[in-house]
Design goal:
Beta-Lactamase; two-stranded antiparallel sheet; elongated; 2 domains; Arc Repressor Mutant, subunit A; alpha+beta
Length: 239
């Protein structure tokens, strides 16, 4: 993959995350003011498709990222941002909102504090937030945000996720020990929830017990923003 194709993949991933609509070559040239022709962009898209980074839902449609494409995007963005530095995509208004929730529940019991943060996080991320207080004590919120995403107009996908929710305790127990202290992204089939979803999570220690927090969303989720949101929640819970 050359530099031009790398940038093209980034444009397609970020645009698709925002619009949930396949991205066409002419649109890319026009919207991003590319200094190459639509034909060149189409050729690059064909290369990226052959290499497994993009797919075309229909012959006449634009392209959308694959699991491999999202992974490449995250890896390139991490390198560009020097992975040790925050992406700084978290809007100040969001951090203040999360901090307000944290401070308003700080003097209450810790489980209620985490649940309040989870509810606020679900609203900001527009996805489901799962909290594992231990392997067999699971709290979740934000399923309505998750099912409101365009992907879940597919009833089969809703049914599959619904089946997972019915056995959530078992799924969390399965992955609990694998969750790390670092904010980690599991895309598509890398997580046990659904091949059409992604899961971003971290583990923290509170009151001498290990707990986990994670965002479950469609594979087309705003990864960088959600990573920053979880990093900030992790920071609050570590105070």
């Amino acid at each position: 993959m050359n530099n031009r194709q790398e940038k093209l993949l980034t444009h397609i991933v970020e645009d698709y995350i925002k619009t949930a609509t396949p991205v066409g070559s002419d649109y890319l040239v026009r919207n991003y003011k590319l200094d190459v022709s639509g034909a060149t962009v189409r050729n690059d898209c064909q290369v990226l498709e052959k290499e497994g980074y993009l797919t075309q839902p229909h012959i006449s449609a634009g392209r959308i990222p694959t699991k491999k494409g999202y992974k490449r995007y995250l890896n390139s963005r991490s390198i560009a941002g020097n992975s040790k530095q925050k992406n700084n995509l978290l809007i100040s208004k969001e951090s203040k909102q999360l901090e307000k929730v944290y401070k308003s529940t700080k003097l209450q019991d810790q489980s209620r504090q985490v649940k309040s943060l989870a509810k606020a996080l679900a609203e900001l991320a527009q996805g489901a937030v799962l909290v594992g207080f231990n392997k067999r004590d699971v709290y979740y919120t934000g399923l309505s945000y998750l099912f409101a995403q365009p992907e879940f107009q597919n009833l089969d996908l809703v049914y599959n996720i619904g089946a997972v929710v019915d056995h959530l305790d078992e799924v969390i127990e399965e992955i609990y020990d694998e969750v790390t202290y670092e904010v980690t992204v599991k895309i598509g089939g890398d997580n046990p929830f659904s091949t059409d979803c992604s899961f971003i999570s971290f583990k923290f220690k509170q009151d001498n017990t290990y707990k986990m927090v994670g965002i479950l969303g469609p594979m087309r989720m705003p990864y960088l923003e959600n990573i920053d949101r979880l990093e900030y929640v992790k920071q609050l819970l570590s105070i």
